[in-house]
C-alpha cells in the first residue's frame, strides 16, 4: 500500500507518567479525523521519517534550563523527554512536518523557536481563577486572521485547563492565536507554512465538541498535503 493509499501516520509524544491513559484519547481523535496514531517518547522508537505529522502532548513541566529561566520548587520535570521533544520539534519545524502542540506541547513549540515560558502563569494573572479540570470551564477568544480562526471560527470557545505554565515571549515566527479573558496566551501558531499550532488546553478530552475535533482534522489535512508533496518530490528525484 502506498503512502497516499493509507491513512496519514501521526507520531504522538506523551508523558511516561500519564501516557498510558492519554495516548488512547489522542489516538481516538486522530482516528476520527482520518489519521492513525503511533505513540512515541523518550526510550521509545520514533521513526520521524515515516511520520506525516507530529503531536507533542501534554504532561510534565518543561525545564527552565531550556530557555534561561529559574527552576521552581513545584516543577515536575523529565529531562529525557525535554531533550527528545525539543529535538523532535526543531527537526519537524525545519523539515516542514506539520505539528500540533497540546498544553506542554504548545510550550515546547515556543521554546524550540527561541521563546520562553511563564513558570507561574496563574500568579502572573491574579484576577484569573485557577481552574484545573478536563471540563470546558475556561473561555478563550480567538484572534482574527489566524489559522486557528479559519479552523475553529471566531466565537468565544470554552476549553479546559490543566496547566501551570504558559507561553510568555513568543518564539521566532510565532504569533498569538488565542487568549483568555485575562490576557493569558492560550494558543500560538506559525504565521506561515509549515503547519504548526499549539493550544494550551487539552482538546483530546473534548472529542465530543465539533470545534475541538476540527483541530485534529486540520492536522490530518496538513499531514496529507505533506505526504503528497514528499511523494511528488521522491518521484521527481527518481527520474
Could you describe the largest sheet, including whether it forms a barrel? Answer: 9 strands, mixed
How many E-type strands?
11
What percentage of the residues does DSSP assign to strands (E)?
15-25%
CATH fold-level label: Rossmann fold
**Rounded to an integer, what's the Rg over CA atoms?**
17 Å
Quaternary state, please? single chain
Unreliable sequence segments: none
In which order are the strands of the major sheet placed? 2-1-3-4-11-10-9-6-7
Distance between the termini: 21 Å
**Total helical elements:** 6
Structural class: alpha/beta
Gross morphology:
globular
Q: CATH superfamily, please?
A: Class I glutamine amidotransferase (GATase) domain
The CATH class assignment is Alpha Beta
Helicity range: 25-40%
Amino acid at each position: 500500500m502506498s503512502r497516499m493509499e493509507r491513512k496519514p501516520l501521526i507520531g504522538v509524544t506523551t508523558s511516561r507518567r500519564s501516557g498510558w491513559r492519554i495516548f488512547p484519547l489522542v489516538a481516538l481523535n486522530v482516528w476520527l479525523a482520518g489519521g492513525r496514531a503511533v505513540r512515541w517518547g523518550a526510550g521509545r522508537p520514533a521513526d520521524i521519517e515515516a511520520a506525516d505529522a507530529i503531536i507533542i502532548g501534554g504532561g510534565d513541566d518543561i525545564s527552565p534550563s531550556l530557555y534561561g529561566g529559574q527552576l521552581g520548587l513545584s516543577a515536575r520535570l523529565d529531562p529525557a523527554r525535554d531533550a527528545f521533544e525539543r529535538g523532535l520539534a526543531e527537526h519537524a519545524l525545519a523539515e516542514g512536518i506539520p505539528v500540533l502542540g497540546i498544553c506542554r506541547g504548545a510550550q515546547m513549540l515556543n521554546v524550540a523557536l527561541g521563546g520562553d515560558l511563564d513558570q507561574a502563569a496563574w500568579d502572573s494573572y491574579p484576577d484569573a481563577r485557577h481552574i484545573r479540570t478536563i471540563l470546558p470551564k475556561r473561555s478563550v477568544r480567538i484572534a482574527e486572521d489566524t489559522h486557528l480562526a479559519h479552523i475553529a471560527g471566531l466565537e468565544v470557545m470554552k476549553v479546559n485547563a490543566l496547566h501551570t505554565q504558559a507561553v510568555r515571549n513568543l518564539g521566532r515566527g510565532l504569533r498569538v492565536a488565542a487568549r483568555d479573558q485575562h490576557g493569558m496566551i492560550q494558543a500560538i501558531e506559525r504565521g506561515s507554512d509549515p503547519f504548526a499550532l499549539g493550544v494550551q488546553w487539552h482538546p483530546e478530552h473534548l472529542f465530543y465538541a465539533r470545534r475541538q475535533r476540527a483541530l485534529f482534522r486540520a492536522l490530518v489535512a496538513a499531514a496529507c498535503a505533506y505526504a503528497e508533496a514528499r511523494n511528488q518530490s521522491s518521484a521527481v528525484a527518481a527520474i
